[in-house]
Design a protein that fits this description.
Blueprint: E1 5-11, E2 14-21, E3 28-32, H1 46-49, E4 54-58, H2 78-91, E5 97-101, H3 105-115, E6 120-125, H4 140-147, H5 151-156, H6 163-171, H7 182-192, H8 197-207, H9 209-213, H10 215-225, E7 229-234, H11 242-246, H12 248-251, E8 256-260, H13 267-282
Parallel strand pairs: 3-4, 3-5, 5-6, 6-7, 7-8
Antiparallel strand pairs: 1-2, 2-4
Helix pairs in contact: 2-3, 6-7
């Protein structure tokens, strides 16, 4: 098994933490995590892939071990997150790569593809949405905040930041919740408990509407460039519905869609199966 190393990159003064595995010279694969997690969500997947690919998994700005500057020094928007991660790929020499996107990683990775389509060799979407039909009713409280960004609607979203909700995100839709390690959600809860973290996440809830506004642009990118795409989906995800996975086929007729009997954090229960699907897909 190839060892994982833990590094920091200086991205124009912004410290980005990342995990790296595999050998330079093998096909490159960028792993982008989601809310409220960090690159530790890939701890079981990386060993499944490291013998075949050069893997890098950064913590997004404001998440995990990457810098979390105050909101007065960094505007927490998905545009800004994507800019930092785009520069990160340049700093570490990732010139052409496949990208695995999950949750918040999807609007980040799809922005990278819009900006530099020539750099993207393939897309792997694990519950990473790009279609309106993929959004469940679980988004309704956040939609209310988009429509009326009042303090009352912002305060209502704090329920999504509790320890209990984090555990629920990991275990909902999992046939056997005892199969989900507490390590992931406990570390997420720690990161969310840091001073200022809740306000940052509330800002991102509000800015998520910018991602939905970009869905037509993402879809045009798919139609124009026809990137190879694998969708690996937890079919019981309470936020991103299976219809969002199937919708990729509308713009990418050759897309491969695989459903797994699990929830939002599919890697917690199906890392080996998803890893095998990725190897099969990327080595064709």
């Amino acid at each position: 098994m190839t060892a994982i190393t833990y590094r920091h990159a200086d991205v124009d003064g912004f410290k980005v933490f990342y995990r790296e595995a595999g050998q330079p010279g093998t096909p490159k694969l960028l792993l982008l995590h989601g809310f409220p997690s960090a690159s530790h969500m890939f701890r079981d997947l990386i060993p499944e892939l490291a013998n075949r690919f050069h893997i890098v998994a950064p913590d997004l700005p404001g998440f995990g071990q990457s810098d979390m500057p105050g909101r007065d020094r960094f505007a927490y928007t998905f545009d800004n997150i994507a800019k930092v991660i785009g520069r990160f790929t340049e700093v570490i020499g990732f010139e052409r790569f496949a990208v695995y996107v999950f949750d918040y990683g999807a609007p980040t990775g799809f922005r990278l593809a819009l900006e530099h389509p020539e750099r993207i060799t393939a897309l792997i979407s694990q519950n990473g949405n790009a279609y309106e039909e993929g959004l469940s009713e679980g988004w309704n409280p956040i939609r209310a905040y988009w429509q009326d960004p009042s303090q009352a609607n912002r305060e209502a979203l704090r329920a999504l930041l509790t320890d209990e909700t984090t555990v629920w995100q990991y275990t909902h839709g999992v046939p056997n919740p005892a199969s989900v390690s507490p390590d992931g959600y406990s570390l997420d809860a720690f990161y969310l408990s840091r001073p200022g973290a809740h306000e940052i996440q509330l800002d991102l809830f509000g800015d998520y509407k910018s991602n939905v506004a970009l869905y037509p642009a993402f879809q045009q990118y798919f139609r124009t460039h026809q990137p190879p795409l694998l969708a690996v989906w937890g079919r019981h995800d309470p936020f991103f519905l299976p219809a969002g996975a199937e919708a990729f086929k509308r713009d990418l007729p050759n897309a491969v869609v695989r459903m797994f009997d699990t929830g939002h954090f599919a890697l917690e229960t199906h890392a080996a199966q998803i890893g095998a699907a990725i190897v099969d897909f990327l080595t064709r």
